[in-house]
Specification:
The chain is α+β, with helices and mostly antiparallel strands. It contains 13 helices and 19 strands. The protein is globular and about 65 Å long. The two termini are 32 Å apart.
Length: 480
């Protein structure tokens, strides 16, 4: 049985593969004025990935750096399968999780370009049995997680096989969380519904549509819908950590691995071909891609940083179009630093892996402008609050956290898995060497604090909300 300790020791590197994925240079934007050239320092990248895998206990990672339409670096680290000691290679097949949503969104936009649907069409136009509460929901709202739909309910049985129509019926029974367009809230069920929509409009299962219109034309030869029964060469095994021990991924029914919210097999080489195609018009027109990468407008006129299957933002002045995924013991991440024509893709076979940290650190090795600036502490006039935060962090690290310092609501929300994951992160960082206040804000009844907490091996940012009675109502720890 693989233990967490063993996971820390298995960070080995598989063979390097450096491949071209087709010329996209003619469609690429010029470098950003004043930007530094991107440099792919393979030794530094490997150092970063090994360090993070050891810290996080990740069995295997596949990573690709794509520069101006071609793979500059692709490599596997660690193991795809611990039981058979199979190393990760760039050809290793991982599960996509929600990274698959961008392909569902692209399929929808193909139908828009064909004139078969419009973004502002009500979904009731194509799903006439939709309940009254769904009639104000447009296709645009489903794509942008602003439809008011929720996620899978707490009593949902992931071990049962559902037909597409049964899944749709189950989704229709759940009340909307808010009026369509009022706010943004991530919804897997919204993308499940988009898969049903694609099927009804085209007469094809959405996975077949993706295969015919995207994967095959782009040469994404290993991209496909998840299948437990088919023979899938180079397929990785997924893992999770339970009470400090590595366990195999949890099992879900086969049909729940075919839904449009993210149920694909992909390699980093597949994703590099996809990334190259997004610079031109091989999949969609520029106008369609621009729509996909435009922040959604809410009813209030405010914008949310999400497009169609992509999160939108910036890192130290550099635009980034990105998305993560998590499913069945796997994590996936793609970050496209579009001002720099730089894309980092990573897959891992551990549910608790923090790929956003790996991707961000690798990007910073390629472009120093993406390196986080050194934070500047401010005067700390409430040392008692800082001491409270330090005690809670120590309790998390040692496994001795008691609920007295927390509000009842936060204590109930802070489940054992989250406590274990945060504690494991803190223990891996070594001895705490300091804590400094970076920011403080105040609202009626609650104060918010942001700290940098330094340890022997690295530092984390800690964001805390404290009530008027000096109880912690929220706490988030993340690597800087």
């Amino acid at each position: 049985m693989a233990t967490f300790a063993r996971a820390l020791a298995i960070v080995e590197v598989a063979a390097v593969t450096v491949l071209a994925v087709g010329s996209a240079a003619a469609a690429l934007p010029p470098p950003r004025p004043g930007s530094r050239p991107v440099v792919v320092d393979t030794a530094r990248i490997e150092e970063v990935v090994r360090e993070e895998m050891s810290r996080q206990g990740v069995p295997g990672v596949s990573l690709a750096v794509v520069r101006r339409g071609s793979i500059a670096y692709a490599q596997g680290f660690g193991y795809a399968n611990l039981e058979h000691n199979v190393p990760v290679r760039p050809e290793t097949v991982f599960q996509s999780g929600s990274v698959g949503k961008q392909f569902t969104a692209a399929a929808v936009m193909m139908l828009v370009e064909q004139g078969r649907i419009a973004l502002d069409d009500s979904i009731a136009k194509f799903i006439p049995e939709a309940p009254e509460q769904w009639r104000p929901i447009s296709i645009r709202r489903l794509l942008t997680h602003t439809a008011g739909m929720t996620d899978y309910p707490s009593d949902f049985d992931f071990r049962r096989d559902y037909t597409e129509e049964e899944l749709l019926k189950r989704a229709m029974q759940i009340p909307l969380a808010f009026a369509p367009g009022d706010t943004w809230s991530y919804s897997n069920l919204g993308y499940v519904t988009l898969g049903v929509l694609i099927h009804r409009i085209t007469g094809e299962f959405y996975g077949d549509f993706l295969q015919e219109r995207i994967f095959t034309p782009l040469g994404m030869t290993t991209a496909r819908i998840i299948s437990e029964s088919d023979l899938v060469p180079n397929r990785a095994a997924g893992y999770r950590i339970v009470r400090g021990e590595l366990k195999n991924q949890g099992w879900v029914s086969p049909t729940l691995n075919t839904t449009a919210d993210g149920a694909l097999y992909l390699t980093t080489l597949d994703m590099a071909k996809w990334d190259a195609a997004l610079y031109g018009e091989r999949v969609l027109t520029k106008a369609s891609l621009d729509q996909m990468w435009t922040p959604v407008k809410l009813n209030s006129g405010a914008a949310a940083p999400y497009g169609f299957g992509w999160s939108l933002g910036e890192v130290y002045g550099h635009r980034v179009i990105e998305h993560g995924g998590a499913w069945q013991g796997f994590k996936a991440y793609i970050a496209r630093y579009v001002d720099d024509s730089l894309t980092i893709v990573a897959f891992a076979n551990l549910a608790e892996a923090r790929l956003n940290t790996i991707v961000g650190r690798v990007a910073a090795t390629c472009d120093p402008e993406l390196e986080p600036p050194e934070p500047k502490p401010i005067e700390d006039r409430e040392p008692a609050v800082t001491a409270l935060v330090a005690r809670v962090l120590s309790g998390l690290a040692s496994g001795t956290l008691t609920p007295e310092a927390l509000t009842p609501g936060f204590a109930a929300e802070l489940g054992p898995e989250q406590v274990e994951e945060t504690g494991r992160l803190l223990r891996a960082l070594g001895v705490r060497t300091g804590i400094a206040l970076l920011a403080r804000t105040e609202e009626p009844g609650v104060r918010s604090y942001r700290y940098i907490v330094r340890f022997a091996h690295d530092a984390v940012f800690c964001e805390v909300r404290v009530t008027a009675s000096d109880k912690i109502a929220a706490l988030e720890v993340r690597l800087r």
